[in-house]
Write a structure and sequence with these properties.
19% helix, Isochorismatase-like_dom, globular, alpha/beta, Rossmann fold, Isochorismatase-like_sf, four-stranded parallel sheet
Length: 111
């Protein structure tokens, strides 16, 4: 059985909090999240944490207005690649997925 999973990556204050396209992007993301909830499909949020974006800080928190609920899956990562050193690929029946993210490249990081 094919599982269709929505993956929302790094939509955190310290990564994209001031992105100029954020309001329009947030509207589109929340629309897609609502579609997945209505269809009872899984929604997975990826949150980055490292020395600059420390777990539990305001920078680490998801952006205000993002439609995340207690039933959503959250996976923590400490590397720019959401698939490296996380259990993302081990989520059961994760076969087809849609990723929603804004480029979070920073010239200050040495990736």
């Amino acid at each position: 059985m094919l599982t269709d999973t929505l993956i929302v990556i790094d939509l955190q204050n310290g990564i994209i909090g001031n992105h100029p396209d954020l309001p329009a992007f947030l509207t589109r993301i929340n629309q897609r999240i609502v579609e997945y909830r209505k269809a009872e499909k899984p929604i997975l949020f990826i949150q980055h944490n490292d020395q600059e974006i420390k777990y539990g800080t305001i920078a680490w928190q998801l952006i205000t207005g993002l439609d995340r609920q207690q039933t959503d899956i959250v996976i923590e990562k400490c590397h720019p690649n959401a698939f490296l050193k996380t259990d993302l690929l081990f989520q059961k029946k994760l076969i087809k997925f849609i990723i929603l993210a804004i480029s979070s490249y920073s010239p200050n990081h040495d990736y």
